[in-house]
């Protein structure tokens, strides 16, 4: 049965650059899947799901080329969000909207929020230091009380 581009097929992939919704398996993909099922069945299942994912994205090359493309895309996304791609994480996640006034407002709000975050972090450090001083004072009081009781107990 051929692919008719004019008819409404149930497959959402029909008509995508001649792709009729059929999966074209290369011999090494079949061998990898079968070998994956033989060695450890989740490997074979992962290869099968990856092939379906490839089909869903309309990629007509082999599975390994598709995996390399997706891995490169994930790697680029990771490095840009981690700030390792030459841009900071904030710059890569907040792109220009095309509206200069909105972009300026957003930048000023982000700067204000960052200043507020720094104030909260400083207040948290100050509070932790205060709690530590209270613990030391309480420990010192308890130790002095222990020493007084010890001296009083040996004298009597």
Average residue-wise pLDDT = 76
Structural class: mainly alpha
User: Proportion of β residues?
Assistant: under 5%
Oligomer kind:
single chain
Main pleated-sheet profile:
none
| Shape summary | elongated
End-to-end distance: 108 Å
Number of helices: 5
Low-confidence stretches: 5-19, 86-92
Q: What is the rounded Rg? A: 32 Å
Reading the helices and strands in chain order gives: HHHHH
The number of E-state strands comes to: 0
Helical content band: 55-70%
Could you characterize the architecture of this molecule?
The structure is a single chain. The protein is mainly alpha-helical and 156 residues long. It has a domain of 53 residues. It has five helices and no strands. About 14% of the residues have low confidence.
Overview in brief:
This protein has helices spanning 27-39, 41-56, 63-81, 89-93, 100-155. With 156 residues, the chain is an all-alpha fold. It has a domain at 9-61.
Q: How would you describe this structure in keywords?
A:
156 residues, mainly alpha, 5 helices, 70% helix
Summarize the helices and strands and which ones pair or pack:
Blueprint: H1 27-39, H2 41-56, H3 63-81, H4 89-93, H5 100-155
